[in-house]
Amino acid sequence: MKILHISGAKGWGGNEQQMMYILPELAKNEVENLVFGIEDSVLESQCAKKSISFIGVKDRKLNKPRNFSLLKNVIHDFRPDIIHLHTSDSLTFYVIAKILFGIKPKTVFSKKGMGTSSSFLSNLKYNFKGLSSIICVSNSVKRDLGKILNEKAKSKTVVVHDCVSLEILNLKSVLDLKETYKIDSELKVVGNIANHSNAKDLPTFINVVDEVVNNLNRKDIKFIQIGEFTKNTPELKQLVKDKGLEDAIIFTDKIENASSLVPQFDAFLMTSQREGGPTSVLEAMLLGTPVVSTQVGVVPDVIQDGKNGFIAPVKDFKQLAAKVLTLLDNESLKSEFVVKSKAIIQNDFNAENIAKQTKEEYLRVMKL
User: Fold this and answer.
1) Where in the numbering of this chain does the Glycosyltransferase subfamily 4-like N-terminal domain appear (predicted)?
2) Domains of the chain, first to last
């Protein structure tokens, strides 16, 4: 089986990490993968590290005239059984290419998350009749996407969850957080891994810290936020300053292999307002760090509130803060969450199993 994967990703995030978890496992299941993506992107370099074939497009954008011709030639030479689209712009690119060239292979689109609004053109492409399957990474994505799909398109949706490779259990920490950032050994560490995008809602993360430190007067905790700085970063840092939290929060910027640092957290705190995954929550669960998260993406599929982790409504910083403290102050509860969460990820959300489910979906689509 040959699969042509198309991605317009320039940077690195959970979507791209999922590709790097799934594609090597697909290869073990007799799937030949070829990635069509942005030249000199992080995705290209990661594909090279894992010996995944990659064809790069120039101009840092898929929707350029010469890239449509390139795609046509790649399809002619590679002869894929399935085209798998991984980003929203790859779907736009495919729709135009399909109209121009009448592309033949059946096509699958992975929907990773939902934005706050959807434009008329977005609705058109999600309902495009040329798609054979829409893979949603969580039940919440399937539910939310279903609100803008017609009945025909809705019948094409299927849930294949995000996953984690068990290989991350062998990761070695790239640095010692307490030593690097001069954190007192007696302090507990609450961590978050997320780029500084609007979807990650880091103002709520800061509000949680404000509630814990300033309102509940807990000075025995240090909060660490790991993620790539963006245009939102200055505003976030100003909010920290305004609340007098400079000594309570550390923003590290991007750290390579950040998941290797998760075992150093006493708790993992995710405050996103929109998610497909997040992959970081699945990684934390596998790596033995208990999770407190907003109710987004795959979180309700993997965490039962109070059973193997804590969940709170989006933006409810007071409930998030209370649950973080409940967790940190109860070692037996932490241990219970860790054991149950690790088993859930190892049994149901590991890359090997999800790759098999993905291949099964490919085979189903090929029979349509």
Assistant:
1) 12-167
2) 2-163+350-366 (3.40.50.2000), 167-348 (3.40.50.2000)
